[in-house]
Amino acid sequence: MDLSTIIVNYRTRDLLRDCLTSLYDQTPDLEHEVFVVDNASGDGSVEMVEAEFPDVRLIASDENLGFARANNLALKQAAGDVIALLNPDTVVVERAMEKIVAYLRENPRVGAVCPDLPQPDGTLQVTSCGYLPGFWRMFCQYFFLTRLFPRSRLFRGMNLVAGVYRDPVRVEWLSGACLAARREVWNEVGPLDESWFMFAEDMEWCQRALRRRYQLHYLPQVTVYHIWGASSKGDAHAVSTMWLDSIASWHRRDHGRISTAAMMLVISAGLRLRSLLHKIRSMRGCGDKWRVESEYVGRCSRKAAMLAWAGLKGDIP
What we know:
Layout: E1 3-9, H1 13-25, E2 32-39, H2 45-52, E3 57-61, H3 66-75, E4 82-86, E5 90-92, H4 96-106, E6 110-116, E7 126-130, H5 135-142, H6 145-148, E8 159-161, E9 169-171, E10 173-174, E11 178-182, H7 183-189, H8 201-211, E12 215-226, H9 236-239, H10 242-254, H11 257-283, H12 288-313
Helix pairs in contact: 1-2, 5-11, 10-11, 10-12, 11-12
């Protein structure tokens, strides 16, 4: 078996259909199994998969298990030489999964990879990979130093700047929206950490892979389209700031409360600045999009400030 692909679905029936169609269309030369773990969607996703994709190995949960727990159910059963996690709000193009499998086979020192993940219209400001976050990297990220000096090691942010690289880049974390690794790497590194409902588990898994001296590569020449945020749209308000909780909790494991509080404080300040810039854009008649973005980023800024205070008090688990 060449490839096992695992898709965790929650209320994205139509997007899931498009994802599965593209996945099968774009892997004609691979021996390939596909798992769909449905997190109690209740939107007809399970029935759609059963009727339209009978070859899919469907796991229908009667509760929303979150990202890590759901993926781990299928990871236990996956038999492919390469095992890939894939979001349901993605579209595979130009035989991307075949290229990923070939790259991992040709580069045995590379443990895991992720492709470029732009919007379907090709737009992408930051990549879904980069370097493990801390105070300085978050400062560089949120106060535009990374964007001004995208190739500088000194000013590395959490995310790589999009459009800068054409060849594979060695990084420290890869997005779980499309993360592929050889089965022996999954076996050695272990499953995803189930401490969080969503977010941070991909960074934590990559951190464990790095500790075992595996290389992680971003493949800018391989493209999978990603409709950003669509897989969490059903509970958009509830999960819109959850990434901050997860990053703070994960960072707190290996760093003191002061370090975590400082990182969250710089995130809050950087997000506040971006919220202000978006608001100015909206006031200049640049579209309602920027008003909505300003409100969202402002909400994240307030959440980060709350987490900074919680970090100082030692209240982050």
